[in-house]
Design a protein that fits this description.
alpha+beta, five-stranded antiparallel beta sheet, four-stranded antiparallel beta sheet, 9 strands, about 20% strand, elongated
Amino acid sequence: MGSLPLAFVLKKQKILEALSRPRDEYTDSSPKGSVDEGIRELIDLVNSVDGLITTSSCAGRITVFYEGEKPIDGDEEPGSSAKSKVPGGKGGGKWLYVSHDPIRSDGRQFMQDFGLTDVCGGQRYEETYGGTLDAGTRFIKLQFEPMVVPILHVAAASLSHAQIVLSAAMNAGMRESGIQSTKGGSTNSFPVVAVRSIGLALSSVIGFVCKSEDPEQHTLVSEAYLRTMVMLANARFEANAKRIARFKSWLESQLSQNQTTWEEGAIRSARKRMEGLKQQQDLRAAPSPAPSAAAECPQYDKHGTVDVARLFGEQEE
């Protein structure tokens, strides 16, 4: 594959420097702010390959998210740059609860843990709002997000490098994975593999905030329903861990099969030179071949056939 682009080498160096910091000093832009332990071995494997570097990762998580607003394109008033907004976006939203590990449910009250009120299972919603919510309502969702959406991004130095990661993901059952755009072919941008496993995702609306003057986070469900959802999310966590292990195994296999393609040009040239020198030494050390019949018996010609005239001697006239 030749030498790696300098821009990629510098990008990888910067990321690795950040990842090498002590864990109590490292932070990133994720809600957790650090690398998940459940995926650290996979991250180390990917980053050990010269032509690959992880740019974002998550081993999976259970979240309770209070959604924000998102603009509607093309819905603005004539002559105005302001756009209408509807619920469902991340802008203005917030995380009410995040766990990167299965949640133990012994003796816990999830209604309280998730910051919800109205333990009557939505009765106040029916009484106060008559079952109708206005356009400004923001919903609260409980979600399980596996290594998706996409939660594992791998930048590659070339499409050939990216194909190795994509092949491993597809073989591991992560069919929604793909190679993303390189942003118009800029010299400072590279293929990015998004490793996805959306089939394990789980999402349910469990509450809402109806009006700005009533910021209380109401529940739409009961404590028993929340407990059931947590149980389902924990089961998805186990399935997700197995899928991550399969992906890691397939990636190791792919890298093993293509190990010579990851060598830098100078390293490959040095290896080929050493292999050539060894072949020459082996040839010099090999025993000389046994003399042929033609060399031992002058009666045989160079083709190993009998020269009858020489065998019986030519008659002199």
